Amino acid sequence: MLRKDMHEENRLGWNLATEAHNSHKADQAGFFRNGGSTLYPEEIALLGDLSGKSLVHLQCNAGQDSLSLVRLGATVTGVDISDTAVEFARRLSDESGLPATFVRSDVYDWLDEAGRSGEQYDIAFSSYGALIWLSDIRLWARGVASVIRPGGNLVVMEFHPFAMVFSDDWRPAYNYFDGTVGTHFETGVGDYVAMSGEVLAPSGYLEGVQNFVNPHRSHEFNWSIGEILTALAEAGLKLKSFHEYPYMNGAKLFEGMQGDADGRFYPPETMPSIPLMYGLVAEKV
Ligand SMILES: C[S@@+](CC[C@H](N)C(=O)[O-])C[C@H]1O[C@@H](n2cnc3c(N)ncnc32)[C@H](O)[C@@H]1O
Predict the structure, then answer these.
(1) Ligand 1: which residues within 6 Å by Cβ?
(2) Mean pLDDT of 159-164
(3) For residue 63, what are the domain limits?
(4) Chain segment 82-99, per-residue pLDDT in tens
(5) Total domains, the chain
(6) pLDDT for 126
(7) Rounded distance, CA 164 to CA 157, Å?
(8) Potential cystine with 104: which of 86, 121, 181, 263 (Cβ 3.0-4.6 Å)?
(9) What is the mean pLDDT of residues 109-133?
(10) Measured from the CA of 130, which atom of ligand 1 is nearest?
(11) What is the mean pLDDT of residues 188-198?
(12) 181 or 152, which is more confident?
């Protein structure tokens, strides 16, 4: 069931969190002007050749990945509910000379309007901590399918819902089967850029905001893999590939994670391998 009231509380939290996150990132416009990219090889491989493609980047936050997609040749529209994220993305686009369109909207409102007005994209892309904010996965999948042209693809690169059952110190603490109920936190999104350090600030890490505590409640919906794949199938999106990865790109979400030189974070060596990330491509039939 769609919970717009909860989306609004999430918007307030994301507004403050986005400011804290960007406070740690040095000269981002210069980074992009010099050819920088914030994308990882995993999503670049799933996206394929982007030259001349139209792409909607759903829940694009402050636009760094969106502008990296522009650099790969796509014409990009980014959509996000956060006011500060979209303001930042527009400014970054201007200052970096990478043109893109950014829309501030609840993704459900945008999908509804774009679907009704017949907007069609070659690719819809969603990544790294986006699906967990969706209160109705089936409605989202139907909306996404409505804005992809026949033969076009949805590409998702996400943190694995199984990883989300763990507390910071790896104790099983949250329900895997949670999507229809949601988990509700008294504090909003934290400063995960400060937790991950330079790997999430490739333009250079600044001390920025210290000891950030988000005063807004947040609401997350941990959709299971089965629920996600079924929602896509019901919406007419045919699964072409599904990959699971034993690491997380750019996110040191749990204690003792070890990073490699490419920004991949693995669990401590004492743990068995578990899926921490997944990627999929589904075609609009
Ligand atoms: C972890 S970030 C995604 C990061 C993104 N992949 C990127 O390229 O930087 C999650 C984003 O989802 C957005 N969001 C949360 N709920 C939303 C909603 N209902 N509609 C649109 N955006 C939403 C937040 O504002 C936030 O920017």
Answers:
(1) 7, 10, 14, 59-61, 64-65, 80-82, 85, 106-107, 127-130, 133
(2) 98
(3) 4-284
(4) 999 999 999 999 999 999
(5) 1
(6) 98
(7) 15
(8) 86
(9) 98
(10) 10
(11) 87
(12) 152
| Segment 15-38, tens digit of pLDDT | 999 999 999 999 999 999 999 999
Query: What CATH number has the domain bearing residue 205?
Result: 3.40.50.150
Q: Which of 8, 44, 47, 81 has most ligand 1 atoms within 8 Å of CB, for mutation?
A: 81
Strands 54-58 and 237-245: unpaired
| CA-to-CA separations, 12 to 81, 87, 167, 185, 259, in angstroms, rounded | 9, 14, 24, 14, 31
Cα–Cα distance for residue pair 6/13, rounded to 1 Å: 11
* Residue 231 CA, ligand 1 centroid: distance in Å: 20
pTM: 0.97
The residue whose C-alpha atom lies closest to atom 19 belonging to ligand 1 is 106
Which amino acid, 163? A
Instruction: From the CA of 128, give the closest atom in ligand 1.
Output: 6
Helix (H) / strand (E) containing 16: helix 4-23
Contact 50, 141 (CB under 8 A): no
